[in-house]
Design brief:
With about 270 residues, this protein is of the alpha/beta class. Helices cover about 35% and strands about 15% of the residues. Helix 3 links the parallel strand 4 (about 65-70) and strand 5 (about 105-110). The structure holds D-galactaro-1,5-lactone. D-galactaro-1,5-lactone binds near residues 73, 109, 110, 111 and 161.
């Protein structure tokens, strides 16, 4: 795989993957609605608004594999989610089909299943339980990827990403954290593994407190090196400074669940 496009290149995960994947894919093409501030001379860039399919088609021209991080990366107003993540995701897969792209790695999110309680250990075969409009858009992207894989033969990997960062930020992130190196490893499986047709993996490092069964990723050779527990003390110290959040602390999606929550709080174990 040589000609790879990274959408969402100006975002946080995009910035990290740009650096980690450049040595692997020297021709890595970047795209975002705006130019990354620190764009290097050796980094080809095409601006594209995901809501405009003609712009997306230009960005994917001659590309073999796409890492699709583009879109709105947290909860937002419906109109924002609709354009960036629903229309935008459709445009990305449809442009990929029209231009003969072989593979798409789609950045899904843990928020597609955020309303599972933390005491549930879930695989990738559970019904989605989104915790936000954002989470719904990620479930939509996973479904769209499945359609394009089954109907059009695109090879698709959906990564239900936990939280990417240098270290886990709090108690919840001790369960869902993924190091930048580990997410780069998963992306490479999506772009290169010969047997991959359509899969969903959890984007998590080797975390003792995980809520997820990620055996599909391991079956494809994933060997994470990050271990959230190594940062337990600082994450728990950060947690101690956070206000109590009975709903958010009960469900996997955290504050994405408690935000705007006016549901049945008796579902929450006290
Ligand atoms: C996500 O999907 C977001 O993109 C990221 O900003 C974090 O909020 C993360 O989930 C998380 O759940 O911690």
């Amino acid at each position: 795989m040589k000609r790879v496009l990274l959408t969402g290149a100006a975002g946080d995960i995009g910035g990290r993957l740009r650096k980690l994947l450049k040595p692997v894919y020297p021709e890595l093409r970047l795209s975002d609605i705006k130019k990354p501030a620190d764009l290097g001379n050796d980094e080809p860039f095409i601006a594209a608004d995901l809501a405009r399919i003609e712009e997306v088609e230009k960005a994917v021209e001659d590309i073999e594999g796409i890492i699709h991080l583009g879109g709105f990366s947290v909860e937002g107003p419906w109109e924002t989610i609709l354009q960036a993540n629903i229309v935008g995701c459709y445009n990305l897969f449809e442009a990929a089909r029209r231009k003969g792209v072989e593979r798409v790695v789609f950045a899904s999110s843990n928020h597609a299943v955020g309303f599972y309680p933390r005491h549930h250990h879930i695989g990738v075969d559970v019904t989605v339980r989104p915790d936000s409009r954002y989470g719904v858009s990620k479930a939509f992207g996973e479904a769209l990827g499945s359609l394009y894989a089954d109907k059009h033969g695109l090879r698709v990997l959906c990564l239900r990403i936990g939280n990417v960062g240098d270290r886990p930020l709090d108690k919840r992130r001790l369960s869902i954290w993924i190091s930048p190196e580990d997410i780069a490893q998963l992306v490479r499986i999506g772009l290169e593994h010969p047997d991959l047709r359509y899969e969903i993996f959890y984007g998590a490092s080797n975390n003792e407190r995980t809520w997820w069964d990620n055996h599909r990723a391991y079956a494809y050779g994933y060997r994470p090196t990050g271990r959230a527990e190594d940062y337990r003390e600082e994450a728990m110290a950060a947690q101690a400074k956070l206000p109590p959040d009975p709903v958010g602390d009960f469900f996997q999606g955290g504050t994405f669940c408690s935000a705007e929550f006016d549901g049945d709080a008796s579902r929450v174990w006290k």
